[in-house]
Amino acid sequence: MSEHIVKSYEEELNHLTAEVARMGGIAEAQVADSIAAVVRRDVPLAEAVVARDEKLDVMEADIEKKCIRLIALRQPMANDLRRTVSAMKIANNLERTGDLAKNIAKRSLIVADAEPMTPLTRSIERMGKLVTQRLKEVLDSYTSGQIDRAVAVWSRDNEVDEHYNSLFRELLTYMMGDPRTISPCAHLLFVAKNLERIGDHATNIAEIVHYDLTGQMLVAAERPKSEAL
Amino acid sequence: MISVTPTSTPADLAAPIKIEAQDVCVFYGDKQALFDVNLQVPDRSVTALIGPSGCGKSTFLRCINRMNDTIPGARVTGRITMAGQDVNDKGLDPVVLRSRVGMVFQKPNPFPKSIFENVAYGPRIHGMATRKDELEAIVESSLKKAGLWNEVADRLHQPGTGLSGGQQQRLVIARAIAVSPEVILMDEPCSALDPIATAKIEELMDELRNQFCIVIVTHSMAQAARVSQQTAFFHLGKLVESGATEEVFTMPRDPRTQDYITGRSG
Questions:
Q1: What ipTM does this complex have?
Q2: Would you state the CATH architecture of domain B14-109+181-262?
Q3: B76: β partners
């Protein structure tokens, strides 16, 4: 694609994309650290995740402000318009992702007080790995402009749901077996639910990337689905 | 296999086709200005012609009411039909054609006559009114349709040239619609107007499109996006792409269109 005649416009658009990518990097790290905090019962790491969340809130507000300014002052058209709107929407999804990671970190503090439940945390770790991988993949597709990678993330949304459903059953078994585990298990259930939602945000971002690059919406009915409980 | 939402085509529009251009080429002497233009313009809608200076959009506009006839050495090939009738038909009097196709130019060009006479002139020479009150009724309704009546009702006999630029432009639109045309061609009608006067013309176009087929040439992308339902992009004498305005401005198919509307050097 050729460059804008007005250089400062080109720079503003590039800056916007770079900011979203940077925000994506932070959100990705937040998710990975929150899972690590659960798995390793790492209290200082959990506290760091909680403290860092504000950064994502600030970045989202800043990106939104820049997008509105760009729309008002530059009146972007076609791919530029899609790029601007997509930046705003992705930032919004990343901010929500950050909130969910923060919530996982908070719950890890409570889980860390209980007796270790290694098989369960292993399952959480596996689901977490899948979700972080999806998030990383979709953010890479955004920065590299590779539609097929975004579509691949989008069409494999059901894997996360399946993980969630099996974790749900696993947790129920634990709780029925030993009522003393109910409190930490309930928190782990929320952790799993949060991971499932982060997976949904990755799917949303994949749809936004597809729209950004092609101008066309992916049709949800075409996506393989398994219901998350 | 993934599917995406279907895209609309210009033919999706409900109104019947008013103007159809088939393989239209225009030559000015040896120089070819338009190359095989094929375009359908639906009735009761606004079609915007956009493109860089010299791309042929005004040339195309001028083919519709045979304004190119007046240019020495100009030659038009191909076929343009309006409501099924060939506009270049030897039997069709250009004066009759131009009464069916009104035109508004970049610079408002009222006659050096009163506001009333500006509007009454066309209906009178075309014999549309025999009595004075009939003529007065046409003038009033035309000025009302052009959104100018309230501003000039008490000074109809003052010179049209004394109005502001925006009012003059609405006066010539009133003059154009006074002869009940089928098509209104506008060649950059707002380029000499301030934003408020421009907004009034745009609002007027939105009203008039319920009744007329409007074709506008504009250099303002934002204006094309605001006022039109179809957009056609011309480049170097060729029609590059045409389609629903919404599509052209959010997801143009051709990279040349994309570069032009987003302000890139193609």
A1: 0.72
A2: 3-Layer(aba) Sandwich (3.40)
A3: B26
